[in-house]
Amino acid sequence: RDWDSEESESLGNEGGGHDGWDSDIDVDSDDGEEEERRHRDEDTEEDGPRLDGDTLLRIKNDDPDVTSIDIRNFDHCIDEKDAGYYIGQNSQLEKLSVEGEFMGWDEEFLMTTCLLGRFAKGMAQNRSIKELMMRCCDFSLGNITVSDPQIQRLQKYTVVRLAHFCEQNLNLESVKLDCCDLGDKTIRVLAMVLGRKADKGSLRRMHLTTNDIGDAAGRELIESLKGYGNLAELNLGGNSLGVEACAAIKDLVTSPACCLRELNLQNNDINDEGIVVLTEAFSQNTILKDVDLSLNSDVTPSGWLRFSACLRSPSSSIELLDLSHNDIRDEVMGALGAALANNVTLRSIHFSSKVTRRDPVFASGWRSFFDSLRSSKSALQDLILRGCSIDEDGLIVIAEALNEDTRFKILDLSNNPQANAAAWRQFFAACFRSSSSSLEGIFLCENFVYEEQTDDLMADLAGALTCNETLEAIDLGENVSITEAGWSHFTKLLCDESSINSMYESNHALNYLEAGWSHFTKLLCDESSINSMYESNHALNYLGPQELPPELEALVDLNRREDKGEVAREKILRHHFRDDNANMQEFLGMRAEVLPLAISWLGRGCSCTDRKNDGHSHLYQLLRSMPSLFPSKHRAQATGAKRKREA
């Protein structure tokens, strides 16, 4: 797996569809805002070059190499009216991103309303842009408190111009207006122009998250999308949609022309009545793949019991379902497990919770869920249980289920500190020592709070992973009670250098470790002996985005190779034989089945650029130090004795 991608997609973005590796880490508000700004600043670099004087000139000249632009602010060198006009006349731009947060839209309402209005007047004439992204740009028409009629007109015309842009641009494929406080009036304007748009074939993606959209206005917007046969993504999370909007969603997704693949309705005002409507919709739809219903706290357990019916439907096509931060209890887990028993499409389900639940799922609920999944028809592979208040009994039930069920690939148990050390030991042994273990990624952040036992617990975890060949990623971040002694167990796991056998038999599958980077070198390559190197971990190949120490980075790079036998060989060459006086006598005690492999390894070519570690010189040293490998008549030659000159 690509764990960088997995971090941001498969388990990423808490409250927005998935659970991110670091999404539940709490920080101080000021530091958190600065960190969020920094990350957003990095994330949007891919949106194109920042708007400056040189870039604006290239846009004015219709430079074909400038196909995207990222606008953060206007300064004295750039007039917003000119920028909008040149963008509007440009025929090469395909992607436009505007980040209102960096312009202080909320702090200087009058000034920025004028900026946005003057910019939008020209920009709306563009017909080449395929992706429009605007964040934190206030378009509200419903909460205007400014008395100046000119400002009110300007704000209204700004909305109309952008709506006109959406209607007239036949190349527009994606509209993302997030945190823009659109409000019901703006949404109704947008719905009107979308409904009358002549060509409905280009739009593929619409995101309108956190925009104060009410139920009735949301219904009008959704109804306007019925003719858009290529619309694949619809994100309306963080609004106030209710029963009316759910009814419109039902009409949309049951339409024969619908091709919607992703639907995000997280954090809305959906209640039991609304969830019943959605259940009927999902039971009939055969297209939807990704559904996010997280943070809909108005739905009761009774509503979720009704919802499980859509997962029993033979026409269900949902592959990823997010039910995080909802009122899911024991009886609901049993119903969901029974529904998934014969479901052949759902591969990932999320039950995460940021706060300790008043009524968590207990061991009986987990047992009921997993017992139902023993059917070979279930396609479930990824299970996200972050912050689910899982106690000792629940953890043991999950361990027993994973020991018997080989279908699971990803398991997130982060932020479940309720279980004691004994339960975790049983969990590690059941999940990782079994030859049938199938887990590829496990996430255990913020779990181990018992200071005196944590390092010993890490030794048990590393020991359980020694011969595991499937696990590629493990996240132990935010477990502050793990000391250097605890991390050292993982370094030895990846490369036990005590002997060639140990190095060869190390774990060669693990490829992602979060936290404690400087202590994992021994896990990847334990240099204490050749056997230890042989038994080290040769699979761990991703340790997160941070810069690693050079030696650890080299080991991680080695582990990324598919041929794990070659990985073990190069570790031995690099570490056991890195000195010219390496102890070749260790080969004398090597197991008979391993010795021929070691000799052949030394004689083969090596992909490394270090000539000292290419194997040939090491083979020469080995042959000189072990004359017993040759028949007696060849020993003189092997030991360098002079031959008698023939007459």
Quick rundown:
This protein has 647 residues and is α/β, with parallel strands linked by helices. It contains 26 helices and 18 strands. Strands 1-2-3-4-5-6-7-8-9-10-11-12-13-14-17 form a 15-stranded parallel β-sheet, with no helix packed on it.
Task: Give a topology summary.
Layout: H1 3-8, H2 29-43, H3 53-60, E1 68-71, H4 80-89, E2 95-99, H5 109-123, E3 131-135, H6 149-168, E4 174-178, H7 183-196, E5 205-207, H8 215-224, E6 233-235, H9 243-253, E7 262-264, H10 272-284, E8 290-292, H11 301-307, H12 309-312, E9 320-322, H13 330-340, E10 348-350, H14 363-372, E11 382-384, H15 392-404, E12 410-412, H16 421-432, E13 441-443, H17 451-465, E14 473-475, H18 484-494, E15 498-499, H19 500-504, E16 506-507, E17 512-514, H20 521-524, H21 530-534, E18 535-537, H22 550-559, H23 564-576, H24 595-603, H25 616-625, H26 632-639
Parallel strand pairs: 1-2, 2-3, 3-4, 4-5, 5-6, 6-7, 7-8, 8-9, 9-10, 10-11, 11-12, 12-13, 13-14, 14-17, 16-18
Helix pairs in contact: 4-5, 5-6, 6-7, 7-8, 8-9, 9-10, 10-11, 11-13, 13-14, 14-15, 15-16, 16-17, 17-18
Radius of gyration equals 30 Å
**How large is the share of residues in beta strands?**
5-15%
| Overall mean pLDDT | 78
Helix residue percentage: 40-55%
- Number of helical stretches of at least 4 residues: 26
Could you give the order of strands across the largest sheet? 1-2-3-4-5-6-7-8-9-10-11-12-13-14-17
Largest sheet: 15 strands, parallel
- Extended strand count: 18
Q: Which secondary-structure class do the elements indicate?
A: alpha/beta
N- to C-terminal distance: 68 Å
* pLDDT < 50 stretches: 7-45, 104-111, 515-519
Shape: globular
